[in-house]
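Slide 14.
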Amino acid sequence: MALIWLLIGFVTLFISGNWLVKGSVELSRHFKISTLVIGLTVVAFGTSAPELFVSIKAAYNGVPDLAVGNIVGSNIANIGLILGLVAMMMPIPIRNRNIRFDWGVMMLSTILLILFIQNGVLGLWEGLTFLVALGLYLFWSLYQSRRKHSQSGETILKPSYPLYLAILVVVISVTGLYFGAEWLVKGAVELAERWGVSDRVIGISIVAFGTSIPELATSVIAIFKKENDISVGNIVGSNIFNIWAVLGATAVIRPLPVTNAHVLTADILWSAAFAILLLLFMLPLSNGNITRTKGAFMFFLYIAYIYLLFR
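Slide 15: predicted structure.
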């Protein structure tokens, strides 16, 4: 039954997250919000929504290691597994210099997480700090983007379906995310007990992979549409949201004790190492290229990390 609950949870989270983005985009069009603002807010939140629901549910179920492991593992999977696979399918050119700022923010969020969990708990004030930092990042990003595109004459697309239907899609999607998180956490905990491994290991591996599926779908679609900046920007933005939005909101709702020493001494450092590796592979940032070879290296490094988890 554990595997069945996991599968149902994965599928429900994927479908619900996908429709949450679609419904939110429709709402934005009804209220005449530009696609630029949609991309920086709605899509980033939509792809991180599964992590948010799973982490909150895990915290309330008394498995904080699963909540924290889900985020750390998801950030590692986003770079090693997803970008690695995408680059193996098709090399990713780096042409947008703004990626320097976004990567710096991602690294800052990782460093703050390392500092904040050293006392063994991610509490209210740490969560509020994350949320304030996220607000400042979004404000700055929107300001810069609007200034850059103020003369582009971007038109607001007309909605594809009525307002009431857009609201209904969002409500149903959020409900689906809630139940998907419920079933995923239930299956993960049962699987951890059956295999005799910790909640941390299950959170970092299986649960993190499941909640990263929206990022995988978004990046693959973007690269085949030649939207190279989106494929990388989606991953960097999602990693920022995972720490500042997901862990921030979860810690504000319920403090997260970090009792597993491996999270403090290994997992979070692996996350930082993957972030640094991504920067090196994107150089030079104005004319870089994440080749198939680099993608394969990131992918197999991720596989090696997962192998070490289960040893």
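Speaker note: The chain is about 80% helix and 5% strand.
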